[in-house]
UniProtKB/TrEMBL annotation:
Coiled-coil stretches noted in the UniProt entry, renumbered to this chain: none
Protein name as annotated: TetR/AcrR family transcriptional regulator
Organism, as annotated: Mycolicibacterium arenosum
Keyword check for Zinc-finger: no
SUPFAM superfamilies: Homeodomain-like
Domain of life, source organism: Bacteria
Pfam families: TetR_N (PF00440)
DNA-binding region in chain numbering: 27-46
InterPro entries associated with the record: Homeodomain-like_sf, HTH-type_TetR-like_transc_reg, HTH_TetR
Keywords associated with the record: DNA-binding, Transcription, Transcription regulation
Domain HTH tetR-type: 4-64
Length: 180
């Protein structure tokens, strides 16, 4: 008998494929070939490509949240406080492939390609909801601070992806995010 693959095995392989080749190149056929299985096994667990892509992007987000969980030890005063805690963690080389996939998905969403258009909004709302828990105050203030945190962190990390670490560090300092 052949090796049985679980849904988690398939998803882990899909995440690694997206990290290596980009989420736009992720197909049932290429994933099946990479894992040495029939594409019908992929379809069994992920009936549509949209479901596969959605689950890959959720998994990427969960990996980032786990890493950030250790950086967010205190309640944040404001968005700059949380961004200062996040950037040293997220700027590590090991997270570059995760952000490459994230920014690729954002670009595909901006171009109006599905499932990225609908999915990007849902993922953003999930991040804002998660980050808002690190702030005190009324729900409106917590949400606004979370949105500002996403804007700051994503902006600095996009500069890092496109222009390099030195440019991102200069941008962070100019934004008042003195990094230690």
């Amino acid at each position: 008998m052949g090796h049985k693959h679980t849904r988690d095995d398939i998803l882990d392989g899909a995440v690694e494929a997206a990290l290596d080749d980009g989420v736009s190149r992720l197909t049932f056929g290429t994933l099946a070939k990479r894992l040495g299985v029939s594409d019908r096994i992929i379809v069994y667990y992920f009936p549509t490509k949209n479901q596969l892509v959605t689950d890959v992007l959720i998994q990427v987000g969960e990996r980032l949240q786990v890493a950030l969980g250790s950086a967010f030890t205190d309640a944040a005063e404001d968005h700059r406080h949380l961004a200062r805690a996040a950037l040293p963690v997220l700027s590590r080389k090991e997270f570059e492939p995760l952000f490459a996939v994230y920014f690729e998905a954002c670009g595909l969403a901006a171009a109006g390609l599905e499932p990225f258009g609908d999915l990007a909004g849902q993922l953003m709302q999930g991040w804002v909801g998660w980050l808002s828990e690190f702030f005190s105050g009324d729900p409106h203030r917590r949400r606004a601070e979370a949105e500002a945190t996403v804007a700051l962190v994503d902006g600095v990390l996009l500069v890092r992806q496109l222009a390099g670490a030195a440019a991102a560090d200069r941008a962070a300092v100019a934004l008042g995010l003195r990094l230690n």
